[in-house]
Amino acid sequence: MAILTESDIPIYAPSITLTGDALTGAILNAQYQIESAKGANRPLEITQFTEPKRLNPKQQNAYLSYYPLIIDETHPIEVKVRIGNEVSILGYGISPQEWQILDSSEYTLDNPLGKISLNINDILYRFNWWGYAWQNPQSFYTEAEITYFSGFDFTDTNNDTVKFIKSMAGQVLTYLQSGSYQ
Q: Which of 1, 57, 65, 118 lies 20 to 30 Å (CA to CA) from residue 124?
């Protein structure tokens, strides 16, 4: 699915007179420009991403890279965590353990920020009689692998952000076809 369709051209790029395969190619070229490293640097359509993340050891959270997050029955989020690749308080390496899949009740997701926080109750601080704090290296997760969906549904014509992106795509398409682009 492209950002713009042939039926969108009269609305968002009315000066374009191409038809058929030439129009399809021009639309895809504009989309590649928009999603390239000099543009959004990511796919804007709904896409599945799998990201390995280092968890903040004290707060047990991480931030996802792509917005907006799509959360519904057809686009599930999977969070896998493990302990490993750490050095214990005594200087011993902790080898990676097996991935554990978390239930949706074991994490919270702040959609506008893309922040995922684990609801783990065994994050413990231990204090000795000198007052120094240390954390049991087996009481927290250090790595997460998060699979989620992010992007925009360009068939939703009521979404203002989608309309804005389509408008910008129409301007890019018009510029690319104007002859000013070399």
A: 65
